[in-house]
Amino acid sequence: MSQSKNIQDENLPIWLPRLAVHGGPRFLQIADALQAAMVEGSLKPGDRLPPQRQLAAQLDVDLTTVTRAYDEARRRNLLEGRGARGTYIAAPKVELTSILDLSMNTPPPPDGVDFDDMLKQGLSQVLMGADSELLMTYHLAGGSDSDRKAGAKWLAPMFGHLDSQQLVVCPGAQAAIAGLILALTAPGDVILAEPMSYPGLCAAANQFGRRIIAVEADKHGMLPAMLEEACRRHKPGLVYLNPTLQNPTAVTIPQRRRKELAGIAKRCNVRIVEDDPYWLLADNPPPPVATFAPEQVVYISTLSKCLTPGLRVAFVLIRDPHERERFLSALRSFALMVAPLTTALATQWILDDSADRLMEGVRNEARVRHRMARDILAGRYSGAGDGLHVWLELPAYWNSSQLARAADSVGIAVTPAEAFATGSGSVNAIRISLGSIKDRGRLQAGLQRLSQLLARRPDSSVSTTNSR
Q: Residue 423 has what pLDDT?
């Protein structure tokens, strides 16, 4: 048997490695290997691939596995069929030469899920079950009863059973943050946040005349002692936390510290806005801060990072009914309602469990991409292995703005640390988003190009070094 296996290995196409036992679905391993060979140049447009039955025999897998691999490769526009003449490597599409975007935090295409088919089926079910006029007219802000029940189901992994009347459905987390700033603070108020934080918070605070003050953090997130001191000194209107796979640092605050931060919020009587878009993507995340101080914490969960940004739906848990009404009033001033059609689709997907399947596909694909980043970036990778992004600290000879410009010059977009800074301190790092490039092969090419850029010094650094 081992002799037969050796013969099979010898007859394998040069582009195809041995299939790994723990390397994920075999059809995806085959498609990924084919794509990597195209990036490396060992497969070129016009090359003919082995017939499916022949490749299945060589790999000792069933024909269905190879068929799925070829179908996946066609979905990625890598292959083209030429009838009886067989299957060939396709010429690259124009989009393959566009910029490699590692700057935008969006979910990757879900692994093992036909998103187009899910979208068509979901919309068909919505249209069959709803009055089309109701989908195209004004609705009350905050979502329908069905939408809020879907929100309660979405939040059940974090909180267990929830009263859906405590939820508000919003057109995205950014709208929720802006509405909460308007509802819970006054012009000139201070908002406390970590030194590196979500840029949308800063944009909304600046627009509304609020001040962001940074609270020192370490490798486990915001420091409780520093938060308490800042609360007593500045009397903030809000504290903003993004505690799970934080954007941009990818830090997850451990449970003990979450309890400490919640306790400080109680003692100082300050509201925490817990913006938690990545909780459902994380491996074994701690309970939300809101579980330790339910009356002090407003919790935001968006579908944009776990499913797709196009839904523009976020759920906000506000237990205090007076604050909930103030929030709804603030929200109506700039976002009268969520879009009924996409909200109905989100509700349909959550209630029929399609959202769970889609999210599991996103989670699995994100993990594959983290493994890819870890392999390519080697010792520079410091991610947690899940979520949508990596926080990459740079070697001393690069600064983050300089590297971002250099990356742009070679067709890669990354986000420098300056985009996230809430204080005057600087961190020499960039955020790399792993989901915005749909195609794994293009992501691999972008990461490899970035790794090569990191390995060499910028021109100015080289000249300075040589002058010494």
A: 83
Q: Residue 384 to residues 109, 248, 370, 373, 447: CA-CA distances in angstroms?
A: 20, 13, 8, 11, 17
Give the domains, in start order, of the chain with CATH numbers: 2-97 (1.10.10.10), 100-111+361-467 (3.90.1150.10), 115-355 (3.40.640.10)
Q: Where are the beta strands (DSSP E) in 247-406?
A: 271-275, 297-302, 314-317, 389-393
- Among left, alpha and beta (phi > 0; psi -120 to 50; other), residue 106 is beta
Cβ 175 vs Cβ 203: under 8 Å: no
* Cβ–Cβ < 8 Å for 66, 59: yes
Q: What is the pLDDT of residue 17?
A: 65
Sequence-ordered list of residues with C-beta below 8 angstroms from that of 436, at least 6 positions apart, any chain: 101, 102, 103, 104, 105, 106
Q: Are 437 and 446 in contact (CB under 8 A)?
A: yes
Identify the pLDDT of residue 465: 34
Residue 1 has pLDDT above 70, yes or no: no
CA angle centred on 164, ends 160 and 167, rounded to 5°: 100
Q: What angle do CA 72, 74, 77 make, to 5 degrees?
A: 120
